[in-house]
Give the backbone structure.
Amino acid sequence: MNYVFFAVFAGILALLYSFWKTNWISKQDPGTEKMQKIGSFIAQGAMAFLKAEYKVLVVFVISIAILLSISGANSKDSHPLIALSFIIGALSSALAGFLGMRVATKANYRTTNAAKNSLNLALKVAFTGGSVMGLSVVGLGIFGLSVLFIIYENFFGFSYENSVIVLNVLSGFSLGASSIALFARVGGGIYTKAADVGADLVGKVEAGIPEDHPLNPATIADNVGDNVGDVAGMGADLFESYVGSIVGTMVIGSAFIPSLQNDGFGGLSAVILPMILAGIGIIASILGTFSVRVKEGGNPQAALNTGQVVAGVLMIVFSYFAIKFLLPESWTASSLISEETITYTANGVFYATITGLIVGILIGFITEYYTGSGKPPVAQIAKQSTTGAATNIIAGLGVGMQSTAIPVTLISAAIIFAYYFAGLYGIAISALGMLVNTGIQLAVDAYGPISDNAGGIAEMSEQPPEVRSRTDKLDAVGNTTAAIGKGFAIASAALTALALFSAFMKQANVKVINISDPNVIAGLFFGAMIPFLFSSFAIGAVGRAAMDMINEVRRQFNEIPELKAALEVLKKHQGNSSNLKGKDKEIFEAAEGKAEYAKCVEISTKAAIREMVIPGLLAIIIPLLVGFIFGPNSLGGLLAGVTATGVLLAIFQSNAGGAWDNAKKMFEGGVEVEGKIYKKGSDAHKAAVVGDTVGDPLKDTSGPSLNILIKLMSVVSLVIAPLIK
C-alpha cells in the first residue's frame, strides 16, 4: 500500500509543475495594448462558455450522483461511496479544463509578442502553456485515483472480496471523468465549428477578407472555439482515457490477487502497477518538456518530437524496472475468458506495455501522412480542387476511408501481441502504455490552439511580416500536432474501451459473448448503429449553429455602415490593408472596433450548450436500457458493435477533415497543376474552402467525440455490471 503514495507524490509534482509554469507565463511580456485587448476578448469568451457549460453540468452531476448512491446502496458488490468517486472525477475533469483554458488564453497573446524576439521564445511560451494543460490533466487524474484508492482500501479493509467493492466504487471516478469529457468535447466542438464555418463562409468566401481579420465579427468566436474545442475538449478527452485505462487495468489485475499472495504487496501488485506506471509517466513527461527548444530558422516540429522521444525512452527504461520490482518473475492464474490456466510473466507485462507505446507512436506517423500538408494524399485533394468542390469532396472522402486501414491493422496487431504476452491484462496494460506519457502528449496537442490563436492575434493586431512568419511557422506545426493528437486519442480510445470491456466482463461474470445468441447479435447491430446516429446529431448541431452564425455575420456586414464601407475598400485592394492611403485608409480605420464580437460569441455559446445535451444523454441511457432489459450478454454485444464502428468512423472523420483542412492551406503557398499555379482566392482555393467546411465538423466535433462515446458507454456498463450480472 505504501508504494501507492508514489503515485500521490507524482500527482502533486505534476500540479506543482503546472503552478510553476503558470507563474512563468504570467511574467512574460503581454505585448501591445491591442494584443492584450484582443487576448482579453478571447479569454472572456472562453470563460463565458465554460461558465455556461458548467452550470448545466452541475445539474447533471448531482442527478447522476444521487442515482449512483441509490444503486450502490442496493448492490452487495458496490457502495453509496461510488457517488463520491463520480463527483470527484467530474470535478477533476472540469478543473483540468478550467486550468488549461485559463493558461492557454494567457499564453496566446504572449506567444505573439514573444515572436517579435525569436522563434525559440515563441515556441517556449506556446509549449509551456500546453504543458500546463498536460500536467494538470495527469496530475489531477492520478492524484484523485490514488488518494481515493488509499481511502477506500482503509475504509473497507483489505481482502479479495472487498477489492471487488473498492474497484467498483473507484470506477465512479472514471464515470465522472467520462461524463464531463463527452459534454466538453461535443459542446466545444459545436462551438468552435459554428464560429469557424461562419467566419470562413461569410468572411473568406463571400466577403473575400483574410482569416482572423478584425473586420470579421466571428473571428473572436473562432479563436475562442480553438480553446474550448482543442484545449478543454482534448484535455477532457485524454483525461478520461488516462483514468479509464488505469481503472480498467486495476479491475482486471484484481483477478490475480489470489495468485499473487506471495508478491510482497498482499497480492495487490497487479492492481498497484497501473498507478505506479502512471506516476513514472508524469516524471518522464516533465523531464521531456525540458528538451523542447528550437534555434532561429529551425523546425518547431522536430523540437516537439524530441521532447516526446525523450519522454518515451525514459518511460521504457523506468517502466522495465518498475514492472520487475512489483511483479514476480512468473505466476499462474485462470484466464478471465475460460477455465484455462495461464502462466504470466513480468517480462510479458513489460512487452505488452511497450506494444501500446510503440503502436501509439506509429499511428501518429500514419495520421501525419494522411493529413500532413504537402503529403501525397493531401496534395491529391488539392489537385482535384482545380475541377471544383465536388471532386475535392470525393477525394477527401476517399482519403478518409483509406486512412482507416493501417491504424486498425496496428490496433489489431497490438491486441493480438498484448494478449499473447499477458492475456487480457496485457491488452489493458498496453492501453495504459499508450497513455502513460499523456502529460507531454497533451502538452504538444494544446500547443496547437495556442499557436493558432497567436497567429490570429498577430493578424488582428497588424504585426510586422517577420512576426507573422514566426507565428505562421508555429501554427503550421500546430495543425500537424492537432491531427496527430486526434489519431493518438482514437487509438488510445480503442484500447481503453477494450480494457474497460474486459473489466465489464469480469465484473458481470460474463465468460464468453456468443454471437449466435439472437440477443447478442441484436445488441451488436444496434451498437454498430449508435456511432452513426451520434455523429448525425453532432453534425446536425454544427449545421444549425453555423446557420445562426452565418446570418449574424451577414447582418453585421450589411447593417453596420462602417463595416460595409471598409469591406468595399478591402475588395478594391484585393484584401490587402497594409498599403491603404488617404480616404480609403480613413474609411478602413473608422471600422475598427465596430464589429460586434460579443454577439457571435453568444450565438456559439448558446448553440453549444443547447445542442450538446441529446448526444450526451444518448451515451448514458442506451447502456442502461440494454443492460437492465436484456442483460449483460446483450450489453456485451452492444459494446462490441459500438467499439468496432466507433473507432473506424472516428478515424475516417478525423483524417478526412484534417486532409481537407491542409489541402485548403496548401493554396496559401500556391499549388501547381499541369504547369499552372493556383493561389489563395482562386476558384480552386474556393473549392478547397468548401471541402474544409464540410470536413470541419467531422474532424473537430463528431470524430473526436466518438472516442469518448465508446469509452463512456463502456464505463457506464462497468459501473452497472454488479447490478445486472
